[in-house]
Amino acid sequence: MKEGVCWLHGEILPLEQARIPVLDHGLLYGDGVFEGIRFYAGVPFLLNEHLRRLRDSARAIALEIPWEDQELSGITAAVVEAFEGDDGYLRMIVTRGEGPLGIDPAQCRAPRLIVIASRLEMVNHAARTEGVRLITAAIRRLPPDGLDPRIKSLNYLNHILARIEANRAGADEAVLLNAQGRVAEGTADNLFVVRDGRLLTPPVIDGTLPGITRALVIRLAGEAGIDVRERSLAPYDLHTADECFLTGTGAELIPVREIDGRAMKACPGPVFRCCSEAFRQEIRRHCGGERR
Ligand SMILES: Cc1ncc(COP(=O)(O)O)c(C=O)c1O
Question: Which listed residue, 22, 49, 96, 150, has the most CB atoms within 10 A of its CB?
C-alpha cells in the first residue's frame, strides 16, 4: 500500500478507504489534538515524547484519551507493520468524537482515534539541500491567552493563512510573528538562527510550539559544544542572521537560504551541518536506520 494505511475503529484499512462521520467535532470545529511522528527502519522516533505531548494537549482541552500508552504504542506498531515501507510518517489524531451540530462538546461521548501511516515530504530534495526561502507573514500567531501554543490542536487556520501568503509570494514557508511582533515559528516547524556562532531559538512564551525536534536539536547542539540559547527574536534578527534553519518532525532539519529577500550568509552553514549530522546519528542510534 503505497499511499498508506489507517487504523480506525479497531481495523487497519487502506488510507483511501478510511472514513469518519460528518458529525465528528474534529471536522465541525477542529475540536481535537494530534501528533506527527516519523518512523525510520520501522521504528517510531521519539514515540514516548509524542505520546506525552498528545496527552498534555488533550488534558489542556479537557479531552479524555481512553487509550493507554501501551495500546497507542501497539496500534502504532501495527500500522507501521501494515505500511509498505520502512520509513514514513504517522499521524495520530484524537477528536472529540461525534455530537449534535452545536459547538458544545458535552454531548460528544466517545473520542475518536485515527492513526495514519503514510509519507510526508515537506519540501523537495533540491530545497532540502540548497535551502528554502521564507517570508514573514502578515497574519500573526494566535496569542497564548487565546490558544496556548503548547496545545497541538486541530486548529491550524492561521498557520494555513500564513502558508497561503508564502505560496502567493513564491516562497517555501512563512514565519509567524506573535502579536508583539516577535518571531514565533514556521507554519509547521520551529526556527533557529545562528549569530556569531551562537544558536538562538525563540522561547515558547513568544508563541512557539515546544517542538520535540527543537528540544532534541537544543540538546545535541549543546553536546556538540555549541552555545545554544532560547532568546526572543525580532525580524531584524532573522534578516541579519549568519544562518537559519527549520526543525520539525515533518521538516526534520531544513536550511534556510533567504528570508524576506535577504540572503543568509551561509546555507547550509557550519552550525546547520553539525546539528544535521548529530540528528542523523541520533536517528541511527534510536532506530538503527534512516531514509537518506
Ligand atoms: C506549529 C508547529 N510548530 C512546530 C512544529 C515542530 O514540532 P515537532 O518537532 O514536535 O514536530 C510543528 C510540527 O508538529 C508544528 O505544527
Answer: 96
3-state secondary structure of 247: strand
Amino acid occupying residue 123 = V
Site to substitute for ligand 1 among 47, 190, 247, most atoms within 8 A of C-beta: 190
* The CATH classification of domain 5-118, taken from the options 3.30.470.10, 3.40.720.10, 3.40.50.410, 3.50.50.60: 3.30.470.10
Question: What pLDDT is recorded for position 275?
Answer: 98
Beta-bridge mates of residue 44: 39
> What are the distances in angstroms from CA 201 to CA 19, 101, 109, 133, 259?
39, 41, 40, 18, 16
Q: Is 149 in the pocket of ligand 1 (CB under 6 A)?
A: no
Distance CA(94)–CA(245), nearest Å, equals 30
Euclidean distance between CA atoms 100 and 155, whole angstroms: 20
Alpha-carbon distance 20 to 8, whole Å? 9
The CATH number corresponding to 125-287 among 3.40.50.1820, 1.20.1600.10, 1.10.10.10, 3.20.10.10 equals: 3.20.10.10
Cα separation, 206 vs 57, in Å, equals 18
